[in-house]
Amino acid sequence: MTLSFNPLRDVGRDDPYPLYRALRDAAPVHHSRESGMYVVSRFDDVQQVLRSHDLFSSRAMLTVLQPKGLENGMPFTPRMLWYSARLMWKARLNPFLLLMTPSLIASDGARHDALRAIVNRGFTPRRIAAWEARAREVVAECVAKLDRSESFDLVADLSVPLPVTVIAEMLGIPHERRHDFKRWSDMVIQTATGAGREDAFNPRVLDTMEELLTYLSRFARERRRAPGDDLISAIVSGRDGDALHPQDAMMFVLLLLVAGNETTTNLIGNAVNALLDHPDQLARLAANPAQIPDAIEETLRFDAPVQAVFRLATADSEIAGVRIPKGATVAALIGSANRDERRFPAADRFDIVRQAQGHIAFGFGKHFCLGAALARLEARVALEALVPRLVALQKRDAVPPRLESFLVRGPTQLALVKAPRAA
Questions:
Q1: Strand 329-333 and strand 38-40: pairing?
Q2: Residue partners of 9: CB distance under 8 A and separation at least 6
Q3: What's CA 32's distance to the chain center, in Å?
Q4: Model-level pTM?
């Protein structure tokens, strides 16, 4: 059997895991003819790619996540020149420079270390722990709707509001802009990793991007003049002796806008979906809520919120006996690696008492996810409130609709209804 796999298309399937298994068994390093990428699917090989920072550059994340049409830079069409001029006037940002500015996840070496050192100050264990009380308040407000027996969509009514509220407040963004935050985040995901890549320069997308960048740029300038006790102030004010360049600060805020809510939203959605699909595991968890952290780790392994990352080969190399030429893009399938039975026995089984530690859902090495501790905290608080209620609920749709994205994975809706009582 000849396998055909395109990481910019096939990762986003409703269920990519059987295809991942086929790759691991028959073509663990697969040269995708359609995309030109080398697709790595086994745990040890994916970990090797993530570990080898000098040999496999994160710069690929900048180019792969750009919408179609930007491969060779900003197109000099009348429409784009008009929007670029407006952005430079309203936001004081040069979109040409912005496109060439790699974010934290697309940086390497000394630049990555310097960027991370600045933004790490907002993600210390003490600062993350301090957000637990606020997370519990948000969750309590959300599940109150469920307790009133109203219609309840886990995504719209809990897994979106929780991380969006927390990351917005961490950044210092006013609460009333929360819904804008989610709308902006959805637009970025769609145009960078979903169906919107094909039409990224239509007026609706450009207007939304202009709105987003203008708002964030003005907010950052205000915080530079009058710093507050928030993360944007910390990265733009230089109060600790250093500060991010405006272009770098904007890229970091954009990264947090997306990663700071999408990862947790999809983690919670995937966890609840898996628990409802496996009632024996849900019953076990309801009987012993102390296992909620284990259930979160198993969800991260079983159905990772981020399914793939991309790297650029900086020199000729070899993975599992396959030559990777210099300049090639490597797609490291995190979602497949975490289902590799060579690393996790019976890997396709969802088992909350499994020793899932060692999964790479949050990456590995220098690029280990900055917000992993926050995502785990928010998921734990959410599941502590949800699990006692889930035993009396079921999914309205057996297979909930999922995000159209080759990068992130999670339900776009997860309607919960009362389960019929046993006769």
A1: parallel
A2: 34, 406
A3: 24
A4: 0.91
Structure-token match 């897994």, residue found:
159
55-66 b/e with 16+ CB inside 10 Å = b? bbbbbbbbebbb
Burial class (CB in 10 A: 0-12, 13-18, 19+), 70: middle
- In which element (H, E) is residue 151 found? none
Q: List the alpha helices (DSSP H) in 13-105.
A: 17-26, 43-51, 60-64, 78-90, 95-99
d(CA 107, CA 42): 25
Taking the chain (423 residues) in runs of 10, the rounded mean pLDDT of each run is: 84 91 96 95 97 93 74 62 77 71 83 83 88 97 90 94 91 84 82 69 79 85 85 73 70 79 93 98 97 98 96 96 96 98 97 93 89 95 97 93 91 92 60
The pLDDT score that the predictor gives to residue 198 is 66
- How is residue 195 written in tokens? 């169906």
For residue 344, what pLDDT is reported?
A: 97
For position 241, what pLDDT does the model report? 54
Q: Is 142 left (phi over 0), alpha (psi -120 to 50) or beta?
A: alpha
> What is the residue whose two structure tokens read 């519990």?
136
CA 335 to chain CA centroid, nearest Å? 13
201-210 long-range contacts, CB within 8 A, separation 24+ = 201/67, 201/69, 201/75, 201/77, 201/79, 201/80, 203/79, 206/79, 206/83, 208/183, 208/184, 210/83, 210/86, 210/87, 210/90, 210/91
Which of 138, 173, 158 minimizes the C-alpha distance to 256? 173
According to the model, what pLDDT value does residue 329 have? 96
